[in-house]
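Subject: design request, 98 residues
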């Protein structure tokens, strides 16, 4: 899976757990895309919780959107909710520290 491939990289992986029916997720989609452009050394992935429920359960994702920061297979941080400022700050913190 994409997550397994991401775990094999030394770079920070930012995973956006989203759902097609989630309004706040749609609001955060362009923010996530912009951050992916600004931080090319990090890996940015989207996971649809309806399509990949076992992965959402594996990472204890209960609310959307949830953003996880994974490095070498370990969850280092998370942002729960459509909080643009917190997501931007944490991406800067984790993606810059490669």
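Subject: RE: design request

Done. Sequence follows.
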């Amino acid at each position: 899976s994409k997550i397994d491939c991401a775990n094999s990289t030394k770079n920070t992986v930012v995973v956006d757990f989203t759902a097609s029916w989630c309004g706040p997720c749609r609001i955060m989609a362009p923010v996530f895309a912009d951050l992916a452009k600004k931080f090319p050394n990090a890996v940015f992935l989207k996971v649809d919780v309806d399509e990949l429920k076992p992965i959402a359960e594996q990472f204890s994702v209960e609310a959307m959107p949830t953003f996880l920061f994974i490095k070498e297979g370990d969850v280092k941080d998370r942002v729960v909710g459509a909080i643009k400022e917190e997501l931007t700050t944490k991406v800067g913190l984790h993606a810059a520290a490669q």
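The mean pLDDT is 91.
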